[in-house]
Design brief:
It is built from nine helices and nine strands. By secondary structure, it is an alpha+beta fold. The longest helix is centred in the C-terminal third of the chain and has 21 residues. The chain is 34% helix and 15% strand. The C terminus is likely disordered. A hairpin with a 2-residue loop joins strand 4 and strand 5.
Length: 317
């Protein structure tokens, strides 16, 4: 009995093969935190310790502050001295070296924020004879980036790079007010609130009330909280993105003899300066300030005063 001829075998896929779904995409991996190079991290901590010190530090004192072995610090310090990043005096004590100034100047020249401050700090007539500062918020502290010295002597000396507890300063409170209460708590942590004078904020409830006032008024006040006899007024600076302030400007004056009229002029001036810098940075027009919004637009200002200076001055507000 004859059999049917066998069908030829081909490699052509069947139509059903064409409808198979593509293979699943691999699950996205959670990005890992960058790994720090230990030697660089130790060097950064060492330079920070030298920058924060108000007097030369010995090897033993640096080892105690940084909880690092003297042998490790000895080699790091020798290298930093050779590179002019640190200096060693005749008593074998160390300070920050002059090369750091080159980096500070480069940062200043490259910073849009610093350029905006320089461009506008001299244009507010009401602030012409006073000391005004530019600061950023770093956790519980403010760091001062620039200062234009006024012609009136103050009880406190200023220096660029100095740090103070944020809640003791008008600039710090101006920036904290742009955050909601949860973000403020996270920034300040769970520890006790720092106080520099008997006028300092004593409780979180009091701090929340002050920040509510800042959001309502568009400016913050340091009423002898950093130094006895001094009063400071600060206003937040905003950038093109985000609701939180990127910086703040402040003016410091001697409280004695400060009239209500002069006080109003200073507040209007510092708010106008903050608005001018914010506009330079691309921030949208300001409106009434709430947690996470821009402050109320201040009244117009006059013009004409000396140019801002970034020369190091000792302890900021």
């Amino acid at each position: 009995m004859p059999t049917a001829a066998a069908k030829p075998i081909t490699d052509k896929p069947r139509d059903t093969d064409r409808s198979l779904p593509p293979p699943p995409s691999p699950s996205p991996r959670t990005p890992r935190a960058p790994r720090l190079v230990p030697a660089v991290e130790r060097t950064s901590r060492l330079l920070d310790a030298l920058a924060d010190a108000h007097e030369p530090l010995s090897l033993a004192e640096l080892a105690r502050r940084l909880t690092l072995p003297r042998s490790s610090l000895h080699g790091l310090l020798a290298t930093l001295v050779e590179l002019d990043l640190a200096r060693r005096n005749d008593q074998a004590e160390f300070t920050l070296g002059p090369r750091a100034l080159r980096w500070a100047d480069a940062f200043t020249a490259q910073s849009d924020l610093m350029r905006a401050f320089d461009a506008h700090a001299h244009r507010i007539a009401a602030l012409g004879t006073e000391t005004i500062m530019l600061a950023t918020l770093e956790g519980r502290e403010v760091t001062y980036l620039a200062c234009r010295q006024g012609s009136r002597p103050l009880a406190v000396n200023f220096r660029v790079g100095g740090r103070f507890p944020a809640i003791c300063t008008s600039s710090g409170k101006a920036m904290l007010a742009s955050l909601d209460d949860k973000a403020v708590t996270q920034a300040l942590g769970d520890g006790p609130l720092p106080r520099l004078t008997r006028h300092g904020i004593a409780s979180f409830a009091s701090l929340r009330r002050q920040l509510a006032d800042v959001r309502r008024d568009g400016h913050a006040i340091d009423d002898e909280e950093t130094a006895e006899g001094m009063q400071c007024f600060g206003a937040p600076v905003f950038g093109a993105r985000g609701a939180a302030a990127v910086a703040a400007v402040a003016v410091s004056v001697i409280k004695a003899g400060l009239t209500a009229k002069r006080r109003t002029e200073l507040i209007q001036g510092i708010r106008q300066l903050a608005t001018n810098i914010s506009t330079e940075l691309g921030a949208p027009p300001p409106a009434t300030m709430t947690a996470g919004s821009h402050p109320t637009t201040p009244k117009p200002r006059a013009s004409g005063t000396p140019r801002a200076s970034r020369i190091a001055i000792s302890t900021p507000h």
